[in-house]
Design brief:
By secondary structure, the protein is mainly β. It is built from one helix and twelve strands. The model has no long low-confidence stretch (mean pLDDT 94).
Length: 137
């Protein structure tokens, strides 16, 4: 057993996120386990870049209201207590609404090369605005 009393809060890297995003790593992939888990906090308007996970991802919202979008234009509005599962290789993004912060647990089972995440280009302001319009209309 290992008791971890706290982990440092880090600012998420600007090359993978738009806006102010903070994370606390809970678990990093280490053989034989391959679970990566983090508490991720998004300020209003903040979001990830487009990305995909080799083995999928589970997002469990712990606070606030956010959005999860996919390349086909599907956007869901998520609130505290709700969970979204993203299947393997699905390109998606997630973040806060424009007026409310959002925090979620991000859970990924890594592959042989690490956490299995492929990071892509930023979600544009126009894509973000369209996502907001989709869930508020």
């Amino acid at each position: 057993m290992e008791h971890i009393t706290s982990t440092p809060t880090l600012k998420a890297p600007a090359e993978r996120f738009t806006g102010d995003v903070y994370l606390n790593m809970i678990s990093t992939p280490a053989e034989p386990a391959r679970l990566a888990a983090a508490l991720v906090r998004f300020t209003p308007g903040a979001r990830t870049n487009w990305h995909a996970h080799a083995l999928g991802q589970v997002l469990h919202v712990t606070d606030g209201v956010g959005l999860v979008g996919t390349r086909d234009g599907t956007v869901v509005r998520v609130s505290a207590g709700e969970t979204v599962t993203c299947p393997p290789a699905e390109e998606h993004w997630h973040g806060a609404t424009d007026t409310t912060l959002m925090a979620h647990l991000a859970l990924v089972v890594g592959d042989a090369t690490g956490d299995g995440t492929t990071w892509l280009e930023p979600v544009t302001d126009d894509q973000y605005a369209a996502a907001l319009a989709t869930v508020s209309g």
